[in-house]
Design brief:
mainly alpha, 5 helices, 85% helix
């Protein structure tokens, strides 16, 4: 497989890694599980237990596990065959997936900000219209 084809697959495989990582660590459907894990990470006695539970609530940390699962399912290696290719592909998948998640987070923030701006403008217009109607 050519390096160009491998790079294309890297960017394509990073999409589901980012999607699963974001969904588990941010979206409402997993909120209860995430809250339970966060509580366990705070209350656990041993540092290994605390770290284990906190890793499952961090998008960056969790993306490593999702990337490992993706590599297991696809047998994708990058540049080198064997274990070196898996290591390179794994860290590359995590890096690209986290770029995707950062872009998605910024996009969601921009959309939320625009919605709030629109609500403010709509309230101002409604108040102006109500003031004009009162004068009539």
């Amino acid at each position: 497989m050519s390096v160009g084809h491998q790079l294309l697959l890297l960017f394509v495989f990073a999409i589901p890694v980012a999607c699963v990582s974001w969904t588990v660590t941010h979206e409402e459907i997993f909120r209860e599980v995430r809250e339970w894990l966060a509580a366990r990470s705070q209350a656990a006695r041993h540092i290994l237990s605390r770290k284990f539970f906190s890793v499952l609530t961090c998008e960056y940390c969790f993306s490593h596990y999702v990337a490992i699962a993706m590599l297991f399912v696809t047998r994708f290696t990058l540049v080198f065959p064997g274990w070196r290719g898996y290591v390179l592909a794994g860290f590359s998948l995590v890096w690209i997936a986290n770029l995707y998640m950062s872009l998605f987070g910024r996009l969601r923030l921009a959309i939320t900000s625009e919605r709030q701006d629109i609500e403010v403008v709509e309230k101002m217009v409604n108040q102006e219209n109500a003031g004009k109607d009162a004068k009539r």
